[in-house]
Amino acid sequence: MTYDLVIRTRRAVLPDGERPAAVAVAGGRIAEIAARDAPLPAAFETDLGAAALLPGLVDTHVHVNEPGRTEWEGFATATRAAAAGGVTTLIDMPLNSLPPTVSAGALAVKRAAAAGKLHVDVGFWGGAIPGNVPSLRPLHDGGVFGFKCFASDSGVPEFPPLSFAGMREAFREIASFGGLVIVHAEDPSALTDPADGGYPAFLASRPPDAERRAVEQVIRLAGETGVRAHILHLSAADCLEPLAKAQADGLPVTAETCPHYLVLSADEAGGPAYKCCPPIRDPANRDALWQGLASGVISCVVSDHSPSTPDLKQGDFATAWGGISSLQLGLPAVWTAARARGHDLADVVRWMAEGPAALAAVSGKGRIAVGNDADLVAFDPDAPFTVDPSRLRHRHPITPYGGRTLTGTVRATWLRGALAGDAPAGRMLTRKETP
């Protein structure tokens, strides 16, 4: 047969290791993986030269904010940024949009807002908030990939937190249909208002103990209800001990962290672009998070892309919006730090593609394997660049990475075998209908 596309590379990052290969694409899927110089007739062929071939990244933690707060981001801009950063699948968080995705009706509104705007494939999380337990099963039946809840204030009034008693009720319902719950884990009783607008005061207001208390409570509730539970954006390394024990005991509890916790540190937080919740902590904590990744206690690295309008990122650390925009920069940021610590591209693929795809059970994604979608990234791991915020594709060019030199450049991104980013060719994914 004649394939639609053949990509040849000296460095294909495959499930069984890195090696030279030729990847053949037909009908949007990977049809064959052969030796690099194998004769494979194709309508189009490309050789990546020094660039590596990675599976498209899967980012399961993105705040798109459309509809309702599209001036903060939006599906068109977020998915263009994703494609530019090698992300071919993202799952949109249920809050910061209006209405939040806490009912089947709100999910329909979200899907209508996304139609025709997607440059990569997009799925949706549902939300668990006080009073919406009857809506959880209909959302699950509607195809959401799981349910997000907050233990502490979310920052927006329409998505209030659950008490731990409320979590127990929601977890039981979600466990009854085999669903997944993902938790912003900070115990509100351990949080305080910052004493002033500086970063040390902000950091002190959200101590590691706030995360650990909430994580321990989620672990207890997972053991009690049997629900699959995932800890979002882990920043406090103090949580690794209880998580490791829970996993060793066989509880279905997993955790993620984010590029900013692995790359940045508290001593360089120079302005509100660095503000996020939970906060970026000290270098020793950062080192321990890397150890948690290496050991497998942390299984995913995802962006928590949480943009806002520029006016909300003004002021000081007490008043500015807490969110970091990094959807386009996650791969080079993590790779720059990972290679300096002795990790290889296979590790990064495991954390940023395979792990998130497995977490959300997004089939056909996250691995270069026959039968999977031909979601692929040409990534030059040795090419440095300096981050120019004006070249970012998300709506507002605000980033703590501005002016930083990173190593690793995305040369091309393919979505189901077609170059991504120029035209909106992405699909809306559901839990029942993943490709």
Features:
six-stranded parallel β-sheet; alpha/beta; 435 residues; 22% strand; four-stranded mixed β-sheet
- Estimate what percentage of residues fall within beta strands: 15-25%
Q: Find the structural class using helix and strand composition.
A: alpha/beta
**Structure summary, number of beta strands:** 17
Give the helix proportion (percent range).
Answer: 25-40%
Give the termini separation.
Answer: 23 Å
Report on this model:
This protein is of the alpha/beta class. It has 11 helices and 17 strands. The protein has helices at 75-84, 104-114, 133-141, 164-176, 199-205, 208-225, 240-248, 259-263, 283-295, 330-340, 345-360, and strands at residues 5-14, 17-26, 29-34, 45-47, 52-55, 57-62, 87-92, 121-124, 126-127, 147-150, 180-184, 228-231, 253-257, 300-301, 376-386, 405-415, 418-419. The chain has a 6-stranded parallel beta sheet with strand order 9-10-11-12-13-14. Strands 3-2-1-4 form a 4-stranded mixed beta sheet. Helix 4 (164-176) packs across helix 6 and helix 10 (330-340) packs across helix 11 (345-360). It is globular, with a radius of gyration of 21 Å.
Topology (elements, then pairings):
Blueprint: E1 5-14, E2 17-26, E3 29-34, E4 45-47, E5 52-55, E6 57-62, H1 75-84, E7 87-92, H2 104-114, E8 121-124, E9 126-127, H3 133-141, E10 147-150, H4 164-176, E11 180-184, H5 199-205, H6 208-225, E12 228-231, H7 240-248, E13 253-257, H8 259-263, H9 283-295, E14 300-301, H10 330-340, H11 345-360, E15 376-386, E16 405-415, E17 418-419
Parallel strand pairs: 1-4, 6-7, 7-8, 9-10, 10-11, 11-12, 12-13, 13-14
Antiparallel strand pairs: 1-2, 2-3, 5-15, 15-16, 16-17
GO molecular function, one term: allantoinase activity
Pfam families: Amidohydro_1
Protein name: allantoinase
